[in-house]
Amino acid sequence: MTPSPAHRIVLDTASRMVPRVFAVLIFLAGALLLIADFAPINPSAMPLIRRWLPLVLVELSHAFAAAIGVLMLFLARGLWERIDSAWYGALGLFWTGALLSLTRELAVVPAIAMAACGLLLLPCHRAFNRRSSLLTMAVNPLWILVTVATLAAIVWTGFYLYKHIPYAHTLWGDFAYHGNASRFLRGLVIVAVTIGVFMLYRLFGIARWLPPLPDDEDADRIQEVIAGATHPQAWLALLRDKHILWNDDRTAFLMYGTSGRQWVVMGEPVGDATAAEDLAWKLKEMASLANARLSFYQVGPGVLPLMIDLDLRPYKIGEEAMIDAVHFDLSGKKGYGFRQTLKKYETLEARFEVVAPDALEAHMGRLKVVSDAWLESKNAKEKRYSLGSFDPDYMRLTPVAVVWIGGEIKAFANLWPLQSRTVLTLDLMRYHPQSPPSIMEYLFLKLIAYARDSGYASFSMGLAPLAGLEARPLSSAWPKIASVIYQLGGDIYNFQGLRAYKDKFKPRWEPRYMAVPGQEQALGAALMAVVALGNKPPTKED
């Protein structure tokens, strides 16, 4: 029977509250276990302890209880974050703590309490549905502060209880039923060793929580998935500068970069729609476990429902110029300038060609000359993350459109094809500074015709950043800030000029968004992360 909405709300609330309740319980249990372990044995229970518990068992129980208490404090965050392995660990620690309470000093009430906590936790496994490694979770400052404060208070309590006993080296080797101070000193060492081992593991293992960058096998599979993609932006995964999150069947993936606490997904989920949606939720949980903030950069209107479900707020960051390749017309007065450009380059005997990937190697040197000259003329360096860079390994993966004049390549652009033939777009655009004027306009006109002849419905000229944002009196801060940058930021980036240039081709402008977890402050931090990722130098893995 399908649960009613009210029943579903109750179940959802319970699934969120249960982990937090048990996180608090195990934290308190760990703290109380350490306090009891450091405190003197109850004198009234001493006759029974002497009769039923051998001294070796008492000493070992005290030693293990110190380690178990610390582990309980550490495990509390795993329960709070609903990690499945924390559930297993908590069961073991609760019941081990109960047993040690009995073998340490016949503490029946604490033993029953911890055993009961374990029994209550046993049927709650479904509430702990996140798969992650407990020892590689990102550091959370609040949890560290609370844990350190708790341990400091417990240690201070121990020193207070034994302040009347003068320190002597012989205390370390005093094994006796009444050797409470000695057990306290040895317990401090065990606590310190437990914390030290944990910290060393974190020190040498913290870098492993991020998945590696794509290898050759990943690249081959990425190309297969891209073949069925609906948006050509998926080709950016082959830059190998982003982490790839696959589904189990490797039929869908998300590509994302990390900059500090910012995790930024580049574009929309790629591949099977249902699997891609599950991946978005999985990555959100991974970011939550890592104490990171997840955002999506350059997504279209079609995925906004998913963004809202993920509790992300979309902000418009610009518009993409989409040209109807089938009905693009050069006739009439509006097409006069374009016809003149084509005629001019016919006079120059220019030749347009799309070079297939397997034939590209012979032209790689010429392409690099054009690319280097373009970068030098713009006083620019290669960018990454949201657009391609001139890397021979990357260039060999896609067709490249070139313009020949006088036997030399004067301009080029690598293309992102799709089997669906929905839209063709280009990534890297470069031209030689000594090329004739309007060479990029000529290249665009030839690419539109090429897209039409190849059966594509549309040709994308790319994003016009900050275009289409209107600052109205009741608008939030972002459209107002973006409008000012758009109008006055010409010295930094020619926003208006780029929009006006693309507008000559009469495109259909489609909005693009960045979805972030919060208001304008979160958007600003996420955009800064995009800039940082774009300027990030290549790594050895690239």
Alpha-carbon distance between the two ends = 51 Å
Helix content: 40-55%
Report the mean per-residue pLDDT as an integer.
Answer: 87
Number of helices: 17
Structural class: alpha+beta
Number of beta-strand segments: 12
Number of domains: 3
Biggest beta-sheet profile:
12 strands, mixed
Strand content: 15-25%
Shape: elongated
Topology:
Elements: H1 5-38, H2 46-52, H3 55-80, H4 84-105, H5 108-121, H6 141-161, H7 180-205, H8 216-227, E1 243-246, E2 252-259, E3 262-266, E4 270-271, H9 273-289, E5 293-299, H10 304-309, E6 313-324, H11 336-347, E7 351-355, H12 364-378, H13 392-395, E8 400-405, E9 408-416, E10 423-431, H14 439-453, E11 458-465, H15 477-488, H16 495-503, E12 508-516, H17 520-534
Helix pairs in contact: 1-3, 1-4, 1-5, 1-6, 3-4, 3-7, 4-5, 11-14
Describe what is shown at a glance.
The chain is an alpha+beta fold and 542 residues long. It is 49% helix and 15% strand.
